[in-house]
User: What shape does this take?
Amino acid sequence: MSTENLPQSPEQQPTRKPRVAVVCGGRSSEHGISVVTAGAVLKAIDRTKYEVLPIGITRDGRWALTADEPERMAITDRRTPTVEDLAESGEGGVVLPVDPGNREVVYTEPGSVPKALGEVDVVFPVLHGPYGEDGTLQGLLELSGVPYVGSGVLSSAVGQDKEYMKRVFESFGLKVGPYLVIRPREWEADEAGARRRIADFAGEHGWPLFVKPARAGSSIGITKVDDFSGLDDALAEARRHDPKILIEAALRGREIECGVLEFEDGPRASVPAEIPPPDAHAYYDFEAKYIDSTPGIVPAPLTEEETAEVQRLAVEAFEAASCEGLVRADFFLTEDGEFVINEINTMPGFTPISMYPQMWQASGIAYPELVDRLIQAALRRSTGLR
Ligand SMILES: Nc1ncnc2c1ncn2[C@@H]1O[C@H](COP(=O)(O)OP(=O)(O)O)[C@@H](O)[C@H]1O
Ligand SMILES: [Mg+2]
Assistant: This one.
């Protein structure tokens, strides 16, 4: 009788380190930032504790093996790197089987035999925006039966859709600013009517207005509009990114952000940060965020009561959307001292200079520990209902 298939005694079992697939890039306009973030995560993961498999998703959605070379994943000459720059696997693709009994990642290439790349124990989707942070990838990972860092399908989708995010927050008693939604069917059926609704909204709340794609990120597609003359361009720009549009009244106040991280005993809030209004930019836009790396003030100069309040609200926002792992909750502190929630980000900017890691750094959790805690939180749960 062969002893090959008999279970090994614990002493004989090779102690395998958990294998983390760091997935970055993707089809969203935040592709480049995602690659930069993944570079920092790859650098920070404790290699004595975890094995790492870097996977990039190209801008047209192909999964590729990428080089485990964090130094090549940085912004150079004001240009963000792409998965296409880093892909190692030529024309081939990486497949995660949609079979909860099989966690083996497979490399396939036309004309050659598929090659097994070993099992993956947890996926760290370092992806922002559509097809990464919006629940679609999370759905794939649920089907595959592989645990993953961050929020599940519904929470990710809620966090990505500025309309439903506001509706969820409102229903949980969190204060949101005035907004108007123009759905694609409404725009197509009655554009004039949609424009009248926008005019009425402007009449009620005044200019400027913020015109936003409902499901984007990194300020992409957002325009601050000062009067009717800028409206057409702003609508066209927003609609280039999403057929569903949000119109928001401009909120006057300080921008305060707060990190939420899932610990063994539940979510906790970081010290908050303040994003000062940048001089060179009309508002906190893409350039201000990533290229000029506008420094946030950490901790935000708030009173003890204000700090406690924003921390409480940040955890409430995390719970309202049933988030997991991490969230950055963004607020406006209005002139009358009220915190109005702008949005949550279920996969916030995560480079070491990004606000989320900075807020945790100031709360006593350094970047590598943050990465470790997120992986551990993911490993503590399985996929499926929870
Ligand atoms: N209603 C608003 N009033 C004032 N400023 C706003 C408003 N909405 C957005 N902004 C500014 O634009 C930035 C980006 O908008 P946000 O809704 O956070 O989009 P994104 O998901 O792209 O980060 C905010 O950080 C803020 O500076
Ligand atoms: Mg934002």
